[in-house]
Amino acid sequence: MPQQLERAKAVAGPSSRAAAPQVGLLSPRHIVFMLPLILLHLGCGLVVLVGVSMPALAIFFCSSAIRVFGITTGYHRLLAHRSFKTSRTFQFILALCGVLAGQNGPLWWVGHHRQHHRYSDREGDAHSPRRGFFWSHMGWLFSPECVPVRHRLVVDLARFAELVWLQRYSYVVNLGHTLMLYAGGEAWRVLDPTAGASGFQFLVWGLILSTVWAYHGIWSANSVCHRFGFRRHATRDDSRNNILVALWIFGDGWHHNHHYCPQSARHGFRWWEIDFNFVILVLLSRLGVVWDLRLPPKAAPI
Ligand SMILES: [Zn+2]
Ligand SMILES: [Zn+2]
Questions:
Q1: What is the mean pLDDT of each run of 10 residues along the chain (302 residues)?
Q2: pLDDT confidence of residue 298
Q3: Largest CA distance in the chain
Q4: If we measure between CA atoms, which residue out of 162, 172, 174 comes closest to residue 4?
Q5: CA of 224 to the centre of ligand 1 (A)
Q6: Is 55 helix (H, G, I), strand (E, B) or coil?
Q7: How far is the CA of 79 from the centre of ligand 1 (A)?
C-alpha cells in the first residue's frame, strides 16, 4: 500500500493542474481511450438489425439504472465527495457498478471530477461549457490531456487495493459483463423462443444502448447543468439546477445545489426536487448498509 501512495505521488508531479499532458495525440494509449466511445455510438445503429423484445427492454432499463446509480451514487457521492459512509464491501460493489458504466475506473473518474470542483468554470476545469457546449459534454473526452489519472487528487482512494484493481482492470470487468449479457440472451432464446430475444439483442440493448444512454445523462451534468436551469446560491461557477437532468440521472441534475454544498449526500434540497439517489441512500441507511449521510447546513438558504 505505501508503494501505491509513493507511485501516486511520483506520477502526480508538482501540481494537479500541471499533471495533464502526458499522452501524445493519437498515440496508442489515446486511441484505445477514445475507441470505445466511438464504437459504442456507432453500435447504436445495430438496433435495426437485432430488433426489440420485452426481455431486451427489461435488460436495457435495469442496466441503465445500475450504470447511472453506480456513477452518481458510487463514483460521485461516495468516492468523489465522501458524502456518506459505508463498509468497504459495499464501497466495492458501488465502484463495480460504476465501472460497468464504461466511464473508466474510479480513480480516473474521481480525479477529473475533483479537478472540476476545484476550478469550476475557470482555467483548470477540463470540461467547462465556457470552452463550448460540445466540449463540455463529450469533446473533452477526445483530448489526450484527459487520458491520465489525476493521481494527486485521489491519494485517499489509492489506499484501497480493490479500487486500484478496478482502475487497472476495468476492461476485464466490462469484458466479463459483456460475455454474461450475451450468454443470458442466448439462454433466453433457447428457453423461451417466442420472446424473440437473443445474445446479440441483449448486447445491443443491455450494453451498447444502455451505456450510451447513461453516458449522455451523466455528461449532461457537465454541459446542460452548467448552461441551462436555475440558480439560487451565490456560487462562483455557472452551475444550474435542471429538473430534466435530475430525473434522468437520479437527482444529480440538481447540480447547482451540489456545487453550493458538494459534501451533501442530498442534492435535491426542496421537497419537489426529486432526488432518487438520496431516497435510496435513506432506505439503505435504515437497513444499516450506509450511515452518516451528510446534509446541507441548517442555516443554508435552501
Ligand atoms: Zn459542475
Ligand atoms: Zn461533484
A1: 43 41 88 97 98 98 98 98 98 98 98 98 96 98 96 98 98 97 98 98 98 98 98 96 98 98 96 97 98 85 54
A2: 75
A3: 62
A4: 162
A5: 10
A6: helix
A7: 16
Contact yes or no for 224/256 (Cβ under 8 A): no
- Say how many Å lie between the CA of residue 154 and the centre of ligand 2: 14
- pLDDT at res. 218: 98
HEC-encoded secondary structure of 224-245: HHHCCCECCCCCCCCCCECHHH
Cell of 62: 435495469
Contacts 24+ apart (CB under 8 A), 44-48: 44/208, 44/209, 44/212, 46/200, 46/204, 46/208, 47/204, 47/205, 47/209
Give distance in angstroms: CA of 35 to centre of ligand 2: 26
Ligand whose nearest atom lies closest to the CA of 245: 1
What distance in angstroms lies between residue 174's CA and the mean position of ligand 1's atoms? Answer: 27
Contacts (Cβ under 8 Å, ≥6 apart) of 212: 40, 41, 44
CA–CA gap between residue 169 and residue 229 (Å, rounded): 38
- Please, which residues have CB within 8 angstroms of residue 253's CB and are 6 or more apart in sequence? 220, 221, 224, 225, 229, 241, 242, 243, 244, 245, 246, 247
Closest ligand to Cα 267: 2
pLDDT at 17: 46
To the question of pTM greater than 0.90 for the whole model, the response is yes
Ligand 1 centre distance from Cα of residue 120 (Å): 6
Distance of CA 209 from the midpoint of ligand 1 (Å): 25
Residue 143: helix, strand or coil by DSSP? coil
